[in-house]
Amino acid sequence: MLVMTDGAADRSPRRPSRAGTGHRRSTGRDVAELAGVSQATVSLVFSGKTSGRVSAEVEERVRHAAAQLGYRPHASASTLRAGRARTVGLLVPDITNPFLGHVLRGAQRAGREHGVTVALIEPGSERNWQLTAMNALNAAAIDGMMLFAIEPPPSAAPTDLGPTVLVEAVAEGFPSVLLDVRQGTAAAVGYLLELGHRRIAHLGADLPPTTFKARASQWRRLLRRAGVDATEAPEVLAAFDLHAARGAAHQLLSMTPRPTALFCDDDLLAAGALMAAHDLRIPVPDQLSIMGFAGTLLSEAATPQLSTVLAPAEELGALGLRTLLQAMDGQATSPEPLPMTLVPRASTAPPRPPDR
Length: 356
Hints:
The chain has helices at residues 28-35, 39-47, 56-69, 77-81, 98-113, 127-139, 158-161, 181-195, 210-225, 242-253, 267-279, 297-301, 313-328, and strands at 86-91, 116-121, 144-148, 164-167, 176-177, 200-205, 235-238, 261-264, 289-291, 308-310, 341-343. It is of the alpha/beta class. The longest helix is centred in the first third of the chain and has 16 residues, at 98-113.
């Protein structure tokens, strides 16, 4: 009978280095380092598969190292391969946003490949409910969380929530999966500038995550670089709601001089802007160009069809799930942001000459 020693006879337990310090949750890698064994041996010990593979002395050493570090095993690749279905939560602020359905589909597709079920939870945009939902899931039998455009509690460390990945949000210490919204904004606003627009107003989302702040800062930077005076480029924020966007667009389109183009943070907001233009009898795109963001089906269903920047929503969800699996093994890093693609359509055109 072959008994795995993992070179145990040649190794002595190591002193903890990174492990056991600060607030970071100890991982299987930390246990392996302290016990002087491989991560595979740690996985065997905590999966109950040591018989005939790991000596009693090595198993005792691993368990002693785990106790020293306060290590609690979470779902990992080894348990998933064993066929035990795991559950992770995807928290979103608004289930009615069409973009999120594609994010969920991508996460579920990747989850099925790894034996993971994705549960969708909508705590809404009210901060207290978001924090309550996070705490409830952390206390429940759930293996990890993806937070879409929802920030973790202030000053929270990853160890406070367990394995957690932020999608379209950023917080220190947490891995993030992001769209390259700066590149997407540059494509959208750059296209409007190329058409000849200078009075490009911003219809922004009144939401805290970094992804929306990045859109606004990039819009301002591009206009400054083009020599556009700030007074020619007003900004109004709206709740992430069709009717709120309609009201905010009314404000922008009632200004003098009126903007010749609107850059909107999302296709949903752009649809609200289309409604406001119709209310005010402003023809699109003859007297007003409207640019969306995200590339949802809403942009195709609108009349006229919305120019937008296409975001790979399903890829974003799948990448979030794969990154969460890495976090569950204590090895997550933030991947590179996903690029976006400009899709010009009928809602944008060169500005109307002043003498027409």
